[in-house]
Write a structure and sequence with these properties.
The chain has about 325 residues and is of the alpha/beta class. It contains ten helices and twelve strands.
């Protein structure tokens, strides 16, 4: 909560936000999403109006108005969250720019590739579902996995799987989701136990067209993004961002890996291999592994071991517990 205030305070104007990447649906990671969407919408409308006014004053032709689109990616249940934050409150009716919400799913059967309205009467808030690809389909990723696996195997594992595997997310059809909300069965299948992350798969995160829009008219992103599942109490994803073009000639494209809450990050290792910066949670300190098993979080030592395994150049620790009251030894 409060991200719509924190972003501008950190020097990130809301009208510059092109995409939002949600890791998981615990409150401290998603409750502010509705306010951020409304803030982005207002900021982009104001920017477009100012640009048009300046062009008119200068006597310039503005040309056809291009749709303004913000993309949002995240775990299953993201649609229900935004139904509560935007649709039930009526806030969606005030949107004047487009938002395409993509939920990650595990199977092609659950996928809905084309964006469709989240609710009747509002063409600005759209939803779709995306299935993964297999790591072994991409030679470079399979090679990275082969390289990193011995290092991962040397990291002591303190986590344990859920009481039973969850090969299916138990998703209702997208139509029934939008009409009837989340069912008790759906809630239990997603959040009733530790969720076992699916290994060997990843998601390609790239902008998609609006209904009826030519895919060639979708702007090319300046960052390429891939996502993979992490082990946590609820379905959780991490993201790897890499420059589409190097910032300077003869310099490798920079890569950044940002993880959600996790006790085991192995699923994203081949994507993160050789990253310039990795952001990893460090909820507990070494010696508190029993608490890690219960809460499905990591220690600072575990974060460091994973960063070393993927040969990250820098490690940023996040998600500190309030127990840390001072720095240093």
């Amino acid at each position: 909560e409060g991200s719509h205030r924190q972003l501008p305070a950190a020097g990130v104007p809301l009208n510059q936000v092109r995409s939002i990447h949600v890791t998981h649906l615990h409150g401290d990671h998603c409750y502010g999403l509705g306010s951020v969407i409304r803030g982005i919408d207002l900021a982009k409308v104001e920017e477009a109006a100012a640009t048009a006014a300046a062009a008119t004053e200068a006597g310039k032709e503005t040309g056809p108005v291009k749709p303004i689109v913000t993309h949002i990616w995240g775990p299953p249940g993201l649609v229900q969250l935004l139904q509560a934050q935007l649709v039930l409150t009526g806030a969606h009716l005030g949107l004047r720019t487009y938002f395409i919400v993509t939920e990650f799913v595990l199977t092609a059967e659950d996928a809905v590739p084309q964006a469709q309205p989240m609710v009747a009467g509002c063409d600005k808030l759209l939803v779709r579902r995306q299935a993964p690809r297999a790591i072994n389909e991409i030679a470079s990723l399979q090679g990275a996995l082969n390289t990193v696996q011995p290092a991962l195997d040397r990291i002591p594992q303190v986590w344990y799987p859920p009481r039973q595997p969850a090969p299916s997310m138990g998703l209702p059809s997208l139509g029934s989701t939008l009409q009837g909300g989340i069912s008790d069965d759906h809630a239990e299948s997603l959040y009733g136990r530790n969720f076992l992350a699916t290994p060997g798969v990843f998601w390609v995160v790239q902008p998609t067209p609006l209904p009826g829009q030519d895919p060639k008219d979708v702007p090319e992103p300046k960052l390429h993004c891939l996502a993979a599942q992490l082990q946590h109490r609820v379905p959780c994803w991490g993201y790897v961002f890499q420059e589409a073009e190097p910032a300077q000639p003869d310099v490798p494209r920079r890569k950044v890996c940002i993880l959600g809450d996790t006790i085991n990050s192995a699923g994203i290792a081949p994507l993160a291999m050789g990253c310039d910066v990795i952001s990893h949670e460090a909820t507990f300190s070494k010696g508190m592994e029993d608490k890690c098993r219960v809460a499905q979080h990591s220690t600072g030592w575990m974060a460091g071991a994973f960063a070393e395994a993927v040969q990250a150049k820098q490690l940023v620790l996040t998600h500190f517990s309030a127990r840390y009251t001072r720095l240093g030894g």
